[in-house]
Every structure is written in structure tokens, then in C-alpha cells.
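A student in our group prepared the protein record below, which I am reviewing. Here is the record exactly as it was handed to me.
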Amino acid sequence: MKTIFLTILMALTAMAGDKGNGGDVLICYNSDKSNMLSIEFLDLYEGRDEQHTTIDPNTQLSRRDQLKEIISSQRHIDPIRMDGYLEQALILEEQLTQTEKGIEQNLVRFTSKMLLDIPDTGALAIPMHCQVEQLIVQQLNP
């Protein structure tokens, strides 16, 4: 679960900018769609494809140190914005650490339903045999 929260946090803070909610994933299949080949947060794909930025966390580090390392590595994009992202990410990480059990208890998982897409990605080109799907939706007042 910690890896999922870290990945979501990285996607939202490091790449999303002002585009949207960060809950989309890019799912790629073989040509006849009989086999899923990969799944990746759309924000991470956009960062790699459009900004030529790769985020590869060192899983040997604590979550806090991973955040520092990853966001600091993106300072070349916009140092002032990345410093703000780091400050906010560390605050969020501290809150997350204190409330992980409560967050996990309040998650709603759908096993027989599909989330509708929130149209917030803007113009985007994706690889052939791939599709964008909504994976996560955050509700402030569930």
C-alpha cells in the first residue's frame, strides 16, 4: 500500500501540474487486446514522453527520502515550483504516515464497476493499442 501512495503522490506532485486530478492510467495491450502489456500512471507517461523525464524511485530509501530524491531531481524543470512541490509533498507524507490506517479503512474498492473518466487530460497522443482509464477518484466529502 505504501508503494501505491508514493506513486500516486509522485504522479500528482511531480508531473500533473494544472492539468487534472491525476487519477488516470495508460493501459497498453497486444494488438488483439487479449493480453495487457503494461499499466502506468498517465502523469508519469506524459512526463517521460513530453518532458523526457523519468522517475525511478530508489525503493531502498524511506518514503520521505524517495520524495526528496525524486522531486529534487526534477528541479531543472522549474526550481521554484519543485521546491514548493517538495515542501507540500513532505507535509502530505507526514500526514499520510499519521493517518494511513484510517485512509485504508475509508477506501472504496469497486470490483464489479468501472469508474467514469473525468475529462481533464487535455490533448494527448498515446501509443497504439493503449487506452486511458480512470483508476482513482478522490472525493473530499464521500
Observations:
- Confidence is low (pLDDT under 50) at residues 1-18.
- The chain is about 45% helix and 10% strand.
